[in-house]
Amino acid sequence: MSVKIFIKAPIEKCFDLARDVEIHTKTTSITKERAVGGIISGLLELGDTVTWEAVHFGIKQRLTAQIIEMEKPNRFVDIMVKGTLHSFVHTHQFMEEKEGTIMIDQFQYKSPLGIIGVLADKLFLEKYMRKFIISRANELKKIAENGGK
C-alpha cells in the first residue's frame, strides 16, 4: 500500500521529522507507540534498530525495525526484524517540489498464519494499516507545516 501527501515544508525538514523517534511517538499517539529498545531518541540512521511498543487491537505488542537504506534527504527504508507480522518493509520517499515536499509512504507487509492471515488482511488488517499510515502522515504534515521540531 502506498500513501502520498504534500507537505508545505523543505525536503530536509520532512526527511528528518520522519526519522525522528520522538516525532514518531507524537504521530502515533493513537496506538500509544513508544520506543523501548535500540535507538530511543533522536534521528534514526543507517543500520540503527528501534523497538516500538504499541497497542493494536487492544493488545500490547513489540516490534523491532532496522534502517537498511538511507539516501539523505530522499529516501530511507526500514524492515521488521522482530514482531508479530511475518514481514514488513516500509519505504519513506521524499520528492522536492517548488512549494514543499511530496512524501510517499510505501508499506509492504505479509501477515503470519498463512490463509488465516490472508483472510484477516481482507477482513480488517489492510484497512487498519492504511488508516494508521494516513493518520501518521497527516500528523507529520501538521508538525512540519507548523514549524515543529
Automatic annotation (TrEMBL):
Keywords from the named record: Cell cycle, Cell division
The Gene Ontology biological process terms listed for this entry are:
cell division
| InterPro entries tied to this protein | START-like_dom_sf
Name of the protein in question:
Cell division protein
Q: From which organism does this entry originate?
A: Heyndrickxia camelliae
Taxonomic lineage from the root: Bacteria, Bacillati, Bacillota, Bacilli, Bacillales
